[in-house]
Amino acid sequence: MDQVVQGKKKWYLRWYMWIVYVVAIPIVIGSIGGASESVSSNTNGSSHNTVAQEPTTENTQVTTENESAPIATPAPNQVKSTDNQILPTSNETVSQKNAVKKAKGYLSYSAFSHDGLVVQLEYEQFSHADAVYGADNSGANWNEQAAKKAKQYMEQSAFSRGSLITQLKYEKFTQEQAEYGANAVGL
């Protein structure tokens, strides 16, 4: 249905469709997707916007139809357990949690020294502080990591005790950890 002028399409018809495809459709889809995240439905099927409220440390009274008992509102760093005990929650930031998760992921398939893991997390664009936090809270036993790394090296090539220790130190293991790794593989 494009109009033809002397055998050619009008330029605005051709480019107009590209603008719609490339610009307008993603904007519409993005605004629909963003709006659906802030709307939730309640039990009777109607929708309402949810507003995040900051928890208070004060005790508040909540009255229901069946009972009227005071309910303690937990402080921002506490949550209620199922038996109504107030438990502390982690003060980790999202970035710190992600650094710990990424560190554990790396350790699940390869051996790292503490400092080597920090360098790897920094390569993944974590801040130095978050990378150190991730390595510190990864649950790794650094001697075991040195032993695993030593085993990996011995599977790849032959090493003398001194050259394996040097290699492990290059991987940022401490002298003691490197010696532990060398001992673990029988050197």
Helix-strand string: EEHEEEEEEHHHHHH
Number of domains: 3
Question: Which stretches are low in confidence, meaning pLDDT under 50 for 5 or more residues running?
Answer: 35-69
Structural class: alpha+beta
Radius of gyration: 29 Å
Count of individual beta strands: 8
For the record, give the distance between the C-alpha atoms at the N and C termini, rounded to a whole number: 81 Å
Helix content: 40-55%
The main pleated sheet reads as: 2 strands, antiparallel
- Helix segment count? 7
Rounded mean pLDDT score:
74
Note the beta-strand portion: 5-15%
Strand order of the largest sheet: 1-2
Outline type = elongated
Could you walk me through the main structural features you see in this protein, from its secondary elements to its overall organization?
The protein is of the alpha+beta class and 187 residues long. It folds into three domains: 1-37, no CATH class; 59-88, no CATH class; 94-184, no CATH class. Helix content is 52%, strand content 14%. The protein has seven helices and eight strands. It has helices at 11-37, 94-109, 114-123, 128-136, 142-156, 161-170, 175-184, and strands at 4-5, 8-9, 39-41, 47-49, 59-63, 68-72, 78-80, 86-88. The protein has a two-stranded antiparallel ribbon. A hairpin with a 5-residue loop joins β3 (39-41) and β4 (47-49). α3 (114-123) packs across α4 (128-136). The longest helix is centred in the N-terminal third of the chain and has 27 residues, at 11-37. The termini are far apart.
Give keywords:
7 helices, alpha+beta, two-stranded antiparallel ribbon, 3 domains, 187 residues
